[in-house]
Design a protein that fits this description.
The chain is mainly α. The protein is built from six helices and six strands. About 65% of the residues lie in helices and about 10% in strands. Strand 1 and strand 2 form a beta hairpin.
């Protein structure tokens, strides 16, 4: 319900108002959730383009993992995971959303496939565990999500290389410090902004 300059109240078609709080119409909620999911997928896609290849590992340093944690924290488990599934789907379909503008099904069986498939799970975990306003809990939730990403990447690299130690050396060791920084940033932003963004969806 809205109020015009004369003080009269006019209802938004399809919306309801309970205790002075306007509740969005179903069509509006679908639109808002679609925007949130698409925006979350786009954020990860943009972050993926900030990638630095390393000479001693097929896994680049990128902002992708931190963006995944942030999307999960800001959107909650359901829409966070859906945003990452959307990211994977559009990349597999041919949109250049993966690191360095790559795309296609081959990326889903390449050296970084384990990380990619772990993204929706990680976003869902962060979204379910984080609590907006609770900094420590949100950071611990982000840490749990990052562990899932590393486990996914490590497991797939171990299959490809036949060596669990080699997989850990390639897929985790070079990124420990940068990923801990990503955990701190994602957890802090979730605690600060999550209440507002989760109300949006």
């Amino acid at each position: 319900m809205m109020t015009d300059n004369a003080g009269a109240s006019t209802a938004v078609p399809g919306s309801t108002e309970i205790a002075g709080v306007r509740h969005a119409a179903p069509a509006e909620m679908v639109l808002r959730r679609s925007i949130a999911v698409g925006g979350g997928a786009a954020l990860v896609a943009v972050a993926a383009q900030f990638a630095i290849p390393l000479p001693f590992t097929p896994v680049p340093v990128s902002l992708e993992g931190g963006a995944v944690l942030l999307v999960g924290g800001l959107l909650g488990w359901r829409y966070g995971a859906l945003a990452l599934l959307t990211f994977l789907a559009v990349g597999a379909a041919g949109m250049p959303v993966f690191s360095d503008g790559t795309f296609g099904l081959t990326r889903l069986v390449g050296p970084t496939a384990g990380y990619l498939f772990a993204f929706p799970v990680a976003a869902g975990i962060v979204g379910s565990l984080a609590r907006p306003g609770a900094v420590l809990r949100s950071m611990l939730a982000a840490l749990a999500g990052m562990v899932v990403i590393h486990l996914g990447g490590w497991a797939w690299l171990a299959i490809l290389t036949g060596s669990a130690h080699q997989a850990f050396t390639w897929g985790s060791v070079p990124f420990l410090l940068t990923d801990l920084l990503a955990v701190a940033i994602a957890g802090g932003l979730t605690a600060r902004l999550g209440a507002r963004t989760r109300r949006f969806v």
